[in-house]
Each structure stands twice: as structure tokens, then as C-alpha cells.
Amino acid sequence: MRKAGNASVLGRASATMLGVLLAGQVHAAVNAMVVVEPTARKAGLIVSQQGVEAGLGKVLGQPVSLATSEDLTDMMRATRSGGYELFIGPAQIAASALSRGYELLGATQGSEPFVLVVRADVADLGALRGRRLYLPQQDSIYTYMARGLLTQGGLSMQDLRVAHERYPQAGLAALLVGSADATVVRQSEWKDWQGQHGTAAKVLASSEPVPGGFSVVVKKDMPADARARLAQWFAAVPASTGLTQAKFKPEMQEYKRVADLGHFTPTQLPGVTRVTAREAQQLQAKGAVLVDTRIEKEYSARHIRGALWVPYVEKSLKDVAFNPAMDDFSALDKADKLKPSQAVIFACNGAECWKSYKAAKQAQAKGFKTVYWLRGGLPEWEAEGLPVESAGS
């Protein structure tokens, strides 16, 4: 009887402990993070932690723990590790999270382009080499946009003397007094400044629209009904929380562009002729050799009909100032069908793939006289409905 009694007591104790654990799981706090651009610190200071926690807690029916950070580098890491169920932050934070299992609930501002503004005496992008670029900290959205705009123009951050400061709008003032030669700002900031200072500076490049203000993203593994309630709450969030209502719903492509900034290849490569898929096909018909620089697995699965596999083994940075000594393109020297006197076309996986860009540049350096670059690669070829094949076909 004693043993049975002990077993009964232990059973009740175990059940009680299990209930406590389950209750703890049910009521575990949802971790939310407000990520503030140092360039927009005021927006973060007015957010009421208590008000947001109370509002979100009521919506979700469980406690919410809200924190705030201006450390954009650390917060980018947090999006990769899934450290928070909910992020309220600038476009680059949202873009990183959206590619890692999060869903967009909305944004507090509409989208607008960023512009690369230079002093009036700077003739073109090439003239910026060695000159001074004013930007906020490295993970700021302004710096993201600057990297993308420079890359498209065939420049690297390493080609300029970059000063990372705190306030982006001050970059325009730096142009005016001559302490900087270039900066990147939102289009609306440029127009306001231009209205006061006229022709003291000019725009050399402009980006596609980028979501402004705060974007709100939540983990996709949160129940669908909870995500729907959160979207409704943020769209009509009370002013007492210090948050702006997230009524805008930017296109996902806008966030993808932000996530890809600095990874896209330039639009031009000096000394190399960029061609379209249709033009590449015509050149093939005239005897040009189309070279696929991707890995063997990709080439075997599907490639442009007639393409020669000559892999570019890439370890260097995806940057116009890449170090070719870090890469292996010995396959070019071993390819019997390729001679410097031949016309060659290099291609890979599209505008985000740097292998064909680097291969074309290396071929040029090795003495190839007629070099073409199909920047759109296999994706553009297929989009045009042109023929492909696999290694076994």
C-alpha cells in the first residue's frame, strides 16, 4: 500500500510539474525588437515600450518583451539566427529577415528612390575614384544603397575614401562646404536641399524605390490567425505607442532588391561587350564560343545549348575590386577549344552571379581579343525561350 501511495504521489507531482511546464510554454513571452537607424534616432526614442508590449500582449494573448537597438550589425545577425519573433525596423533589416522565414505585415512609409549626389565639378562616376564619400554607419540603409549604386557604375567602396558619420543629411552640407565629394540620400531629401541650394550639386545615379520608415515582419511559424491580428493592429496602431501606423504594403521585389544590393554585378565591364541572350545566340551562330562558368552540377543539370563548360572557382569578394589571385580559373588555360584569337561569350546564373563577370575580365587580361559578357546568363536565355540542354541529352 505504501508503494502504491508513493507512486500515486509521484504521479500527481509529475502531472503538476508537466502542467507548470506546459503553462510556461503557453505563456512564454514573444520577443519583439525595434531596430532604429541611427540616422532616424528620434523615431526610436518616442516608441513607448510599455504601450507596445501591452498592445501586442492583448492581441496575442500572451506576454510580449520589447527591446530597442541601434546596433544594425548585431541586428542583421539576429535576423539570420531568428533571435526575435517580431522585427520592427528599416528596410534592410526587414529584407534580411524576409529571406529567412519571416513574413511582411506592413511598412510605415511609402517607397522612394535613393540618389547618389556629387559636387557640381564631378563629371561622372569614373571621376569619383579616390574622392571622398560621406555615408552613415556601414549597415545603414544609406550605405546599402551607396554600395549598390557604385557597383552598378563599376566602382567599389575601395575606390573611394569613405567617411562613415552619423547623419546622412549632413552629407549634403559636406558637399556644399567642400569636405566631401559625394553622398547618398533619399530623393525627397535631395529635392528639399536642391530647392535651397540650386546647382551646387547634381545627381549621378538613382536607385529603384525602397520602402521607407519602419517595416514590420513576423516569423512565419507563428499561427496564421495571430499574424493576421498583428497585421490589423499595426495598421491601426494607437498613437500612444509612439509607432506610426503600418498601412503600406511594399512589393516583395523592393525588399529583394535591398537584400541583393552590393551583390549584383555592374551593368558594364570596360573593354568587354555586354550582350543580350538574343545577341549571344547570333554570335554563337557566327562561331563565337559561349562559355558556362558555373559549377559542374549546375552545368550538367541544364545549360545553354552548345555552351562549353569552363568553371570559374570563386573565393574572392563579389566586388569590382576583387582579387583574382584568390580565385582559380586555370580551366581557361586547359580548354583546348579556347584560343585568345577566338570570340568568347561568358555566362553564368544571371546578374547576381559574378563568375562570368570575373571570367570575362580575366580572359581580357590573358589576351583574349574579343570578349562578350551575357550578364543575364541562363535565366535571361530561358526567359527568351532559347534552347537549353543537359549533360546527358
TrEMBL record:
SMART domains membership: RHOD (SM00450)
Signal peptide extent: 1-28
Ranges where the Rhodanese domain occurs: 284-390
Entries under Pfam families matching the protein: Phosphonate-bd (PF12974), Rhodanese (PF00581)
InterPro entries in alphabetical order: Rhodanese-like_dom, Rhodanese-like_dom_sf
Gene3D superfamilies associated with the record: Periplasmic binding protein-like II, Rhodanese-like domain
SUPFAM superfamilies (UniProt xref): Periplasmic binding protein-like II (SSF53850), Rhodanese/Cell cycle control phosphatase (SSF52821)
Keyword terms of this UniProt record: Signal
UniProt name for this protein: Rhodanese-like domain-containing protein
The organism of origin for this protein: Roseateles subflavus
